[in-house]
Structures
1.
Amino acid sequence: MTKVIAITGKGGTGKTAVAALLIRYLSKKGKFLLAVDADADTNLPETLGCENVKTIGDAKEFLQVEITNPRPDNPDMNKESILKSKVYEIIEEMPGYDLLVMGRPEGSGCYCYVNNLLRGIMDKLITNYDVVVIDAEAGLEHFSRKIIRDIDDLIVVTDASRRGFRTAERIRELVSELDSNVGNIHVIANKVTDNNRNKIEELAGDLKLSLLGTIPLDSKIEEFDIGGVPLTELPDDSVAVLEIEKIAKKLGF
């Protein structure tokens, strides 16, 4: 059975880096893995070393035009087949995993019909993989539209600030309001130092948030980011890599 993990959090907390490191770990473990960038900012491909990617947004725009202005020579085209072929075209085959980028928000007009088609396609696509790791935006747009229906583990990445933990609390409330199929909600604290570790654990306890792990501040991540080097190339002795291994094991890997 496919395990679906979604990673979210407010901007600047390093959620995309956490997603990339989890993808790095799982791909090295030989899992048949689908990485999904569901954030409109689309930072995951660059973090993984994949450039010039096509997006689901492009495919949806194409189909929306076809629906709004059907071609006279092909009025009865099979729209689901067209969208499905576009989705499979967009999937990037990377070393150790596949990558699918959702892309920009929808344009004008109602995309309900297109989203219904995409929902069915994603349901079937996900079952082809052992694990799906989703880099999601904090607003959980794709979950609210139920493009991706079932999440086994939702991970909220926070920094050492109270605002970051409040964001985690709001996301937990949003998930409850959306009546989403989310199994477990966890928090990962990122960029942790010896000076703030105890405070972070206190904050998590006060807000009754499940603290899955604390990733130490890792200078190598900043160094790789500035140099444009994919985080998948971080050395095995990186302190962030070592903590992600512990986190993955807590998730059942």
2.
Amino acid sequence: MSGLANQALGDALAGASAAADRAEHRAGVRLCELTEFGDLQAVCRLYNEIWPSDPNDPPINTELLRALTKAGNYLGGAYHGDTLVGACVGFFGPPADQAMHSHIAGVDAGAAARGVGYALKLHQRAWALARGVRTIRWTFDPLVRRNAYFNLVKLAATATEYLPNFYGGTLDSTDGTDESDRLLVHWDLAADRVAAACAGTSWHVDARAALDAGAVIGLDRGDDDAPTPGTLDGETVLVAVPPDIETLRRIDPARARHWRVAVREALGTLMAGGARPTGFDKAGWFVVTRGGAGQEHR
């Protein structure tokens, strides 16, 4: 690696560490790497509380966490006093990729509004950069509005692939009885937009401005919040998601499944054809462009 490249990586790491420290302070938690068996048990208990599921198929178990941490992979935790309130698990990809896959991250409901999840991701970014990792990848449910905003705006990650029913049919607190479609995102750890987002300047797009500039609506919300297909024939296409898919899954599972299929047909079709979300408007819209145009940084 050249001297300039080393300097750039050093600057990125210093900035990432400082951003993680600030986020830790704002969230009022202690962030740390977890390796002790008692901590691993606490992670499993926390995840089982966040995602109650089949006892025979828990989100993760202590044996796997022990193996992952012993092999040098990432397990970060957020403690409020003596209580674990958040945790994030990641493992390395192929060596040539200089990449990590962030498998599962969760925060206790009582701490979710304090920025603990954001602090954990920034801790993971600094940890990864210190080990030569340049990209972190993970998946999320595109129907969950707050997760789309968090990943594409707060963290400035880039959505690269639509994965239909990625984990198979599910029956848990996240997907209900729905299929487990996911968006795969890449987080370029040293990118300027990511550094800016981690320093507090989020990556925003404006759906209304995109419409005024000629965008079309590929999927809309009807008067009764049902999905209403539009047209995918445009350079910039807006794809809506429901206001609260988790509540909808409980009170109207059939309509929730209707949304799953509608978003898959709109967003999945666009991405399969090479279009990419350039961001997510907090009002509930993916802004999808062909050729990657249309981003606004503010």
3.
Amino acid sequence: MDAARREKKEHGTLSFPFQIYPALDGSEADDSDFIPYHWHPELEIITVDCGRVSLTIADRMYEGARGDVFFAASEELHEIRAAGRENQFRSFVFAADFLQFARADETEFALLEPLAEGRLRFATCLRSGEPGQSEVRTLLAQIVRTWQQQAPGCQLAVKAALLGIVAVCAQYGRLEGRPVRPGADYRARQLREIVGYLGEHFTEPLSLPEVASHFGLSPQYFSTFFRENFGRTFTQHINSLRIEQAARLLRETDLPVMEVGFSVGFDNFSYFIKRFRSVYGVSPSHYRKG
């Protein structure tokens, strides 16, 4: 259950666990406006490249503007929303342990090993204009250029730039310890289980009391817990998952619009159109044509 919203795709390869999203060839551009709650063992750096992007990382919500940089730690739930082509972001996903050296030195003990083990993490948000932001953005732009060219030595150049980001963040105090709070692991595990369960069953009829009962919680407690940790109601979250899937089906299949709405879990076609329009600003039919 917990793995349901763990990303099942491999980020990069076993020999070089690094990947940039959306793909630099533009093949994923239409599929990147909404990345629902998920988690993965790799670290992720998210840059806001144009407009404004809404993010939820762990239990905090952020509004990112052009130039901002965000960091999601290993196994940390996060979600990204960038409605419309005027709002663009890019993600850099990599395994922390592949930055480590075969021969241990001071940086290995002080920075890289704690980062790989989760005892150290990047501060979540680095706003445009803050110390270190321009240096980090320069290094990320260098990674993009290197990755596009795929010249000999590009993998080493990418790794060197990622190490440079670690160094810059250390220099400006953007690396912080991860103290273990009582109950924090249990809460994080419970959140991942809830996200996983809803990710598996959102196309089915779901009610808050039934889902709360599944997790052994009262409806009142579950409702409050959900809103406090996800920044939206249970119903809003289910609708988001359904609208995301509907948009994908409209792009990738020829299913009739009404069938799309019913297949993702809406039992009222008018309500489906209303909810879709509230997210994308157009009806499902116009979205497909556009």
